[in-house]
């Protein structure tokens, strides 16, 4: 392992260069344009997930719907928080968060769902969570040490998406097949 040598004068001089880049310095090791594209795809994913959970919350019906709808609302709130976190990171990196509604579903990893059946709603939400888990795992691995801050954002999202998937699996296990509403 090489010795850590820090030339503070060189670091200070570099910090003054390209000051308009904010936190993106010469030490940034990722492809910034691609990172911003990936972040905007994740932003679209989180917005679509928020909308899907909101729809499921408002349209859930049947004997088992009350606790399931409450879970949908909690997940919708958390997905919106994810979108906000991603949008903040995009801006921090000097990009522009893309909230354009015409292209949201094309850019999103997960799909929107308009199921009317409670069990189908849960299953579609679980599929979407599994898609996000797979995508965010791959993104975190791809980022590696090139952008550790963005990698940690995705690792944090990943942990919550795994929790959502576990919650949904638990809901499916508690609803008897004849209890479909």
From TrEMBL:
InterPro entries: Dps-like, Ferritin-like, Ferritin-like_diiron, Ferritin-like_SF, Ferritin_DPS_dom. Its cofactor is heme b. Residues 29-179 form the Ferritin-like diiron domain. Keywords: Iron, Iron storage. The keyword Iron applies. PROSITE patterns: FERRITIN_LIKE. Signal peptide: none annotated. CDD domains: Ferritin_like (cd00657). Pfam families: Ferritin. PANTHER family: BACTERIOFERRITIN, DNA PROTECTION DURING STARVATION PROTEIN. This is Ferritin-like domain-containing protein.
């Amino acid at each position: 392992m090489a010795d850590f040598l820090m030339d503070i004068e060189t670091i200070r001089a570099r910090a003054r260069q390209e000051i308009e880049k904010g936190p993106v310095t010469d030490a940034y090791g990722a492809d910034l344009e691609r990172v911003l594209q990936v972040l905007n795809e994740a932003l679209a994913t989180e917005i679509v997930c928020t909308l899907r959970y909101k729809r499921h919350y408002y349209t859930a019906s049947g004997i088992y719907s009350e606790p399931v709808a409450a879970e949908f609302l909690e997940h919708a709130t958390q997905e919106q928080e994810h979108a906000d976190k991603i949008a903040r990171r995009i801006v921090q990196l000097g990009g522009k968060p893309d909230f354009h509604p015409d292209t949201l579903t094309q850019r999103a990893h997960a799909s929107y769902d308009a199921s009317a059946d409670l069990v189908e709603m849960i299953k579609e939400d679980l599929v979407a969570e599994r898609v996000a888990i797979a995508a965010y795992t791959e993104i975190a691995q791809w980022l590696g040490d090139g952008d550790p801050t963005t990698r940690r954002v995705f690792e944090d999202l990943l942990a919550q998406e795994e929790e959502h998937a576990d919650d949904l699996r638990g809901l499916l296990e508690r609803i008897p097949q004849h209890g479909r509403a």
